């Protein structure tokens, strides 16, 4: 997603459940520590036979479970995570980072400084034409934000490598200047605050902020003088921005497929799936969708629900529920933002594209009582839902279970229609 759509949906607790949505948000869970690889133990072009979480070829394993240790009384289900390898360009100096949220609603790799360890200070930082270091402010709706330098690295995803790619280091390694006040309230730079070691954004754009190429006042990218500690909002060329690592792969670079199996309405302790790179580029990523919805330039589709057309809708694996406004559904007590109907609701909506393919698609979904779901402590639910703004329908992770969901990258050729699109 573009940066204006990032949102950690309200982080209140309902029983033991924390909400997160709109671009890889998460609860205050503690993440697992990253692992440093030694030369020869990282991925090669064919994957890694020692650590199955690294994947092989063009398939990166996804797992939805409760491996992230809860912080306090909250926990966050429906977090799809994967393992990525980051290396100093052209070397075997690498770090393997687990528990990275797979997010189809944002663009680019963002990892905490703590997860990268010594590599955080070793990666070369991007500089602007004045010689100042580029930083990024990545705000979320609840006041938390990512902040840190833009650095370049080789990013290994399963058996494929995106070489020398701009990514974000969430934190201030090596004395990087503190965040500007415009960023937000709370710096989210540790697993205990984020609930993961970072975010792997694989949405439908090549770079994360197309409008930032000509707009210096968006408060997203900053030019930072490391001597004075001063950072000023700046425009940034497309190539210097944080890049979608899938778009930089030498092959299989026109999109991704998120594959997750169907699960029981009662929830499931863990779910294993895949993030497949490329659409129609190999025998294992042939296009098999029956519905194609064209995204507009802001990566929105429309959803018609309860007689209203919600023109800022999207499909987002980084949102842990379905998020939409419906005053007829009972909300959980305490202002948590989750829905708690007395009986599970069977509902329907109609989705259609905002560009390109626009054929309406009928969408059926379920909304269960979030407190009852939370009491099971399961890690995956297909019927978890909460409130949203009146213009939005966020088709979060519950939508993905039992589907192969395709995301074609803008400007790339892919079967099924004109990119960018989402298909299933």
Mind explaining what this structure looks like?
The chain is mainly beta and 424 residues long. The protein has two domains: 35-248, Cathepsin D, subunit A, domain 1 (Beta Barrel), CATH 2.40.70; 255-423, no CATH class. The protein is 5% helix and 34% strand. The protein contains five helices and 26 strands. It has helices at residues 113-116, 119-122, 191-194, 245-248, 370-376, and strands spanning 13-14, 17-18, 35-37, 59-64, 80-87, 94-103, 107-112, 133-139, 144-157, 160-170, 186-187, 198-202, 221-225, 230-233, 255-260, 271-277, 292-294, 301-305, 308-315, 322-323, 345-352, 361-367, 385-386, 394-395, 403-408, 421-423. The strands form four sheets. Strands 5-6-12-7-10-9 form a six-stranded mixed barrel. Strands 22-21-18-19-24 form a five-stranded mixed β-sheet, with no helix packed on it. The longest helix is centred in the C-terminal third of the chain and has 7 residues, at 370-376.
Question: Secondary structure elements and their pairing?
Answer:
Blueprint: E1 13-14, E2 17-18, E3 35-37, E4 59-64, E5 80-87, E6 94-103, E7 107-112, H1 113-116, H2 119-122, E8 133-139, E9 144-157, E10 160-170, E11 186-187, H3 191-194, E12 198-202, E13 221-225, E14 230-233, H4 245-248, E15 255-260, E16 271-277, E17 292-294, E18 301-305, E19 308-315, E20 322-323, E21 345-352, E22 361-367, H5 370-376, E23 385-386, E24 394-395, E25 403-408, E26 421-423
């Amino acid at each position: 997603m573009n940066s204006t759509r990032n949102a950690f949906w309200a982080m209140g607790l309902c029983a033991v459940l924390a909400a997160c949505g709109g671009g890889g948000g998460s609860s205050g869970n503690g993440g697992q520590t990253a692992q440093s690889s030694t030369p020869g133990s990282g991925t090669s072009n064919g994957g890694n036979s020692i650590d199955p979480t690294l994947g092989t070829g063009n398939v990166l394993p996804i797992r939805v479970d409760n491996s992230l240790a809860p912080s306090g009384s909250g926990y966050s289900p429906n977090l799809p995570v994967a393992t990525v390898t980051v290396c100093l360009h052209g070397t075997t100096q690498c770090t393997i980072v687990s528990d990275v949220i797979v997010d189809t609603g944002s663009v680019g790799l963002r990892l905490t400084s703590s997860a990268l360890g010594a590599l955080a200070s070793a990666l070369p930082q991007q500089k602007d034409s004045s010689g100042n270091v580029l930083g990024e402010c990545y705000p979320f709706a609840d006041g938390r934000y990512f902040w840190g330098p833009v650095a370049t690295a080789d990013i290994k995803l399963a058996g494929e490598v995106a070489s020398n790619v701009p990514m974000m280091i969430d934190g201030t390694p090596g004395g990087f200047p503190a965040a500007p006040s415009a960023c937000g309230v709370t710096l989210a730079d540790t697993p205990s605050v984020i609930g993961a070691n970072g975010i792997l954004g694989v949405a439908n754009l090549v770079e994360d902020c197309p409008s930032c190429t000509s707009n210096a006042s968006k408060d997203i990218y900053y030019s930072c003088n490391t001597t004075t500690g001063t950072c000023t909002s700046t425009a940034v060329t497309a190539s210097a921005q944080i890049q979608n690592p899938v778009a930089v792969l030498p092959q299989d670079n026109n999109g991704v497929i998120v594959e997750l199996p169907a699960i029981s309405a009662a929830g499931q302790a863990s779910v294993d799936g895949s993030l497949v790179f490329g659409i129609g580029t190999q025998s294992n990523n042939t296009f098999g969708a029956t519905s194609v919805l064209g995204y507009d330039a802001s990566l929105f589709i429309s959803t018609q629900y309860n007689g209203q057309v919600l023109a800022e809708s999207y499909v987002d694996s980084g949102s842990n529920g379905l998020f939409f406004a419906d005053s007829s559904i009972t909300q959980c007590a305490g202002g948590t933002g989750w829905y708690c109907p007395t009986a599970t609701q069977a509902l329907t909506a109609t989705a259609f594209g905002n560009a390109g393919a626009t054929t309406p698609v009928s969408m059926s979904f379920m909304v269960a009582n979030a407190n009852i779901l939370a009491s099971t402590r399961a890690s995956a639910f297909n019927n978890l839902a909460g409130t949203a703004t009146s213009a939005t329908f966020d088709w979060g992770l519950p939508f993905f279970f039992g589907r192969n969901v395709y995301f074609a990258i803008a400007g790339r050729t892919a079967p099924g229609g004109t990119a960018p699109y989402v298909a299933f």
